[in-house]
Design brief:
mainly alpha; MetI-like fold; 2 domains; 15 helices; globular
């Protein structure tokens, strides 16, 4: 009898409607991946193509035409690229560290249940997320406080992002109160509780928020266009913008589209290299309301 039971295979019948949904969902995801990947493949293939061969080509490009590194050689010979890289790295590193520090402290304050003004400040913070003074008041404030023409104008005005603050605050509210109470009984202050107890417990969320800040600083160019006037302080994205819109380089040579593609790849690769190491934290960090396993 036991042998017969083992030989019998248990089959679970999936309803037809559910199977159709799974297949439609898989087809949709494949389609979205194709739509996203095709432009990326075109840019990468174009960056490795010979300029004259690419100019004579029309339509989508899936493979380099007469593969060459001439476009990348031209990009790396441009001194502005290296200057922009250095400025952007400074902005990303310093800006992300300060962003995380201020956001972490603000999220800790707004997540404390016994803080009297918690509701008031939470409403004010959320209000600023939906309503702002606009670009001109923002420009005037930055100018009047003395940050105009300074690289700090790209860091200080954007120290706290409200969306990231809410994500981190929600994650901290999920930490059991008993841990904080036990630490307080042992004589721990707020800084000790924050950095030695709560911060390690919300590390996945911290990683996600840090990535959000870093990518935001890396891709930012509009604030630099408004506030930075010295070319030696231009970030990489502003240099990239100039290369993409100008028809001639500084030495008078005509810019081909292959050089533009190579510049885009050079500016994008660092983010693509960092993302895989942070990806594992996304489900834990963003889905702060999910059931813990």
């Amino acid at each position: 009898m036991t042998a017969m039971n083992k030989s019998q295979k248990t089959t679970i019948r999936v309803p037809l409607g559910e199977r159709i949904f799974y297949w439609a969902d898989a087809a949709l995801m494949i389609l979205l991946c194709v739509i996203i990947l095709i432009p990326l493949v075109h840019v990468v293939a174009g960056s490795f193509s010979e300029g004259t061969a690419y100019m004579g080509h029309s339509g989508l490009l899936l493979w380099p035409l007469n593969p060459t590194l001439e476009a990348y050689q031209a990009v790396f010979k441009n001194q502005d690229i290296w200057t922009g890289y250095g400025n952007t790295l400074i902005i990303v590193v310093v800006g992300t560290l300060l962003d995380m520090l201020f956001t972490l402290v603000a999220a800790y304050v707004l997540s404390r249940k016994n803080y009297m003004l918690k509701r008031f400040f939470t409403v004010m913070v959320v209000f600023s997320m939906y309503f702002s003074g606009g670009m001109i008041p923002f420009f005037l404030v930055v100018k009047e406080v003395g940050l105009y023409k300074s690289i700090w104008a790209l860091i200080i005005p954007s120290l706290i992002n409200v969306f990231n603050l809410i994500i981190l605050r929600t994650a901290m509210m999920g930490v059991p109160d008993s841990l904080e109470e036990s630490a307080a009984l042992d004589g721990a202050g707020h800084l000790t509780i924050l950095f030695r107890i709560i911060a390690p417990l919300v590390l996945p969320t911290l990683a996600v928020v840090a990535l959000y800040y870093a990518v935001s600083h890396w891709n930012s160019w509009f604030n630099a266009l408004l506030f930075i006037k010295n070319r030696q302080q231009y970030p990489l994205q502003l240099i990239l913008r100039e290369i993409l819109i100008l028809s001639d380089s500084d030495d008078g040579l005509s810019l081909s589209e292959t050089i533009q593609f190579a510049t885009i790849v050079v500016a994008t690769v660092p983010v693509l290299c960092i993302y895989p190491f942070i990806q594992k934290y996304f489900v834990k960090g963003v889905m702060v309301g999910a059931v813990k396993g």
